[in-house]
Amino acid sequence: MSSPDPSSANAARAALVEALIRTGDADRDAFRAVYQLTSAKLFGICLRICEDRQGAEDVLHDVYLTIWHRAATYRPERASPIAWLATIARNRAIDWRRRQTRARAAPVEAADALADPARAQDETLIADELHGRLHGCLEAIEPRQRSAIRSAFFGGLTYAELALAQAVPLGTMKSWVRRGLLALRGCLDAAA
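-> structure tokens emitted (192 positions)
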């Protein structure tokens, strides 16, 4: 498998940034372009977290409503467009999942074996959007913190699920994630 062409990745990112900015100005054609460029990726995130196709479709609908209403707040200098969009999708999917009454019994490792056999979203986001910078910073932090951050932010697991899976107190898991995020932020700020 060949590595993606950086110039085409940069052009795709620029097109998405422009479409998001125009969507913030209530441009329906730009919003349609945002949907066409991102719906498959965002649906994959929703499906991985919801573990229910109908639920993921409902969440995706809410995601695009949120994007339509909040596109004017997007700032390209603060986040890549796909990271901003993926955060919205992740948060909406987690909210949906928390509202469900069934308890999650699968271990943390099961998140990688869920429905979509395509390349995992965490790998795609790191490779396509952050060009290795985020990956390098993640590798630089303590392994327990790194694992917790990846499971929480890319796998959609809650603090309670992470604590249960790692057999540690909830406060300990929250502390690992918080310290890891602070270290990650410091690394990313230094690399910027």
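The two ends are 29 Å apart (CA to CA).
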